[in-house]
Amino acid sequence: MKLEHAGRRYNRWQPFFTLTRKEILRFLRVSTQTLLAPIVSASLYLFVFGATLGERISVLEGFSYAQFVIPGLILMGVINNAFANTSSSLFMSRYLGNIVDLLVTPITPPQFIFAYTLAAMIRGLGVGLAVWTISLFFARLPWADPLAALAMAALASFLFAQFGLLAAIFANSFDALSMFTNFLILPLIYLGGVFYPLSILPDFWAGISRLNPLFYLIDGFRHAVLGVGDLPLHTAFTVVGVQTLLLFAVTAFLIGRGYRLRN
Predict the structure, then answer these.
(1) Apex CA 213: angle with CA 208 and CA 215, to 5°?
(2) Could you tell me the pTM of the whole model?
(3) How far is CA 167 from CA 64, 90, 92, in A?
(4) CA angle 157-69-79, nearest 5°?
(5) What are the residues facing 3 on neighbouring strands?
(6) Where are the transmembrane segments (predicted)?
(7) 64, 101, 109, 131: which one has the fewest Cβ atoms less than 10 Å from its Cβ?
């Protein structure tokens, strides 16, 4: 719908497209840090687990260790970069005070959220695609259900884009913001089954691992890629879908009220 505004036709979606473009250009301008650095880090993981251990050990019958670990590394790149994009961008806007300029524009809270989220998803999925491309030098994946794998990766990027917005809202300093990554996201990723399946754990630790919300993302994505997993694929999608809706609802509630954005 277009309205007459200041003598010209006004597109109410223009603020959304403008903010989305701004966020995409922001991470592209520093692509060495936002794209190249995580790709290099993932390449080191791939070299260690692909070239050195890939064919020597196996934790899943019928697959090399490289094939087992690559889906987790792909999703790790998606998660880390989707979170980093929204958290760093929104926090810097709050820290520098230019968030006020954005709040006085005719942008609605849903447009605000989805503009940041879409840019984060593009960055996260782009890094995931690059990691998969590099992984082709170490192992080939069967991609049992590519549409389900894409859907799970998209959910992961959307979920952690919301988490990044929440982290940016609640963080009071750069150190506080980095704590979300170092003391929450990375431990949950490493303990979520990236490097091992739950089936090899004792029952007690396997039960504890099921409380890890990232386990369902990682196992669901690996199940879609390899065709086998610790959980049925529909269970992983159900749990991840509920997590995503809850986190989005909290984010929409806080941003809709401008919580800590005007301070």
Answers:
(1) 70
(2) 0.92
(3) 37, 9, 12
(4) 15
(5) 10
(6) 35-53, 65-84, 113-141, 147-171, 183-205, 236-256
(7) 101
What type of residue is 220? Answer: G
* CA–CA distance, 163 with 83 (Å, rounded to integer): 7
* Contact call for residues 228 and 67 (beta carbons, < 8 A): no
Residues ≥6 apart with Cβ < 8 Å to 111? 13, 15, 16, 19
Q: Which residue ranges of the chain lie beneath pLDDT 70?
A: 1-10, 51, 53-56, 263
User: The tokens of 37 are what?
Assistant: 């650095």
Q: State the burial class of residue 8 (Cβ atoms within 10 Å of its Cβ: 0-12, 13-18, 19+).
A: exposed
210 CB-contact burial (10 Å; exposed 0-12 / middle 13-18 / buried 19+) = middle
SS3 per residue for the chain: CEEEECCEEEECCHHHHHHHHHHHHHHHHCHHHHHHHHHHHHHHHHHHHHHHCCCCCCCECCECHHHHHHHHHHHHHHHHHHHHHHHHHHHHHHHHCCHHHHHCCCCCHHHHHHHHHHHHHHHHHHHHHHHHHHHCCCCCCCCCCHHHHHHHHHHHHHHHHHHHHHHHHHCCCHHHHHHHHHHHHHHHHHCCCCCCCHHHCCHHHHHHHCCCHHHHHHHHHHHHHHCCCCCCHHHHHHHHHHHHHHHHHHHHHHHHCCCCCCC
Residue 13's nearest CA partner among 1, 26, 25 is: 1
Residue 24: count of CB within 10 angstroms of its CB: 17
Cα–Cα distance, 16 to 20 (Å, whole number): 6
Query: Cα–Cα distance between 5 and 115 in angstroms, integer?
Result: 23
| Whole-angstrom distance, CA of residue 46 vs CA of residue 70 | 7
Give the separation between CA 211 and CA 234, rounded to whole angstroms: 17
